[in-house]
């Protein structure tokens, strides 16, 4: 999490907004207030109903991006949003330059969500811990 420039908050679109989602988002806003958060609403498998399924998540104060991991719907748009994140002068991982203009680097991202921790038996508190562990994903450089 500390090395990331953006966080992808992954939530479950079938069950709607859960207390754990709010807990993880609150933790992110408290502990990493300068990091951009992209809200990915997974399990929006029906493209015709994806926006409706994701609309409930507007209450979190972020633009929900409906995606389906099973069929790939919306993942390209979500990755495009992720790649557009540029934080000049903050590249710590690739070139360690304080003057990096991000002309050759992809954004460094962390994935957070209460669902992953709940699957491991952690519940909402585990979600905060999972976010703190900083599972990292970075797109390929172009």
State the order of secondary-structure elements, H for helix, E for strand.
EHEHEHEHHE
Largest sheet: 5 strands, mixed
What's the tally of helices?
5
Helix-strand makeup class: alpha/beta
- Shape field: globular
Q: Low-confidence runs (pLDDT<50, min 5 residues)?
A: 116-142
What is the CATH T-level topology? Rossmann fold
Which percent range describes the beta-strand content? 15-25%
Strand adjacency order, main sheet: 3-2-1-4-5
Number of strands: 5
Helix content: 25-40%
Tags for this model:
5 helices, Rossmann fold, alpha/beta, 5-stranded mixed sheet, globular, 142 residues
Q: Could you explain the architecture of this structure?
A:
This protein has 142 residues and is an alpha/beta fold. The protein has a single domain (6-137), classed as Rossmann fold (3-Layer(aba) Sandwich). Helix content is 32%, strand content 17%. The chain has five helices and five strands, in the order E-H-E-H-E-H-E-H-H-E. Helix 1 (19-31) runs parallel beside helix 5 (123-133). The longest helix has 13 residues, at 19-31. The two termini are 23 Å apart. 30% of the residues are buried. Mean pLDDT is 74; it is low at 116-142.
């Amino acid at each position: 999490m500390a090395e990331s420039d953006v966080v992808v908050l992954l939530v479950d679109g079938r069950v709607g907004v859960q207390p754990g989602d709010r807990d993880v988002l609150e933790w992110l806003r408290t502990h990493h207030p300068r990091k951009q958060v992209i809200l990915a609403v997974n399990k929006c498998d029906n493209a015709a109903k994806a926006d409706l399924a994701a609309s409930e998540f507007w209450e979190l104060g972020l633009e929900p991006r409906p995606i389906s991991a099973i069929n790939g719907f919306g993942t390209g748009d979500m990755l495009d949003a992720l790649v557009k994140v540029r934080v000049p002068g903050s590249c710590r991982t690739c070139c360690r330059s304080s003057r990096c203009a991000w002309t050759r680097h992809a954004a460094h991202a962390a994935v957070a969500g209460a669902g992953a921790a709940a699957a491991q038996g952690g519940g909402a508190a585990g979600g905060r811990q999972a976010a703190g562990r900083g599972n990292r994903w970075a797109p390929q450089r172009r």
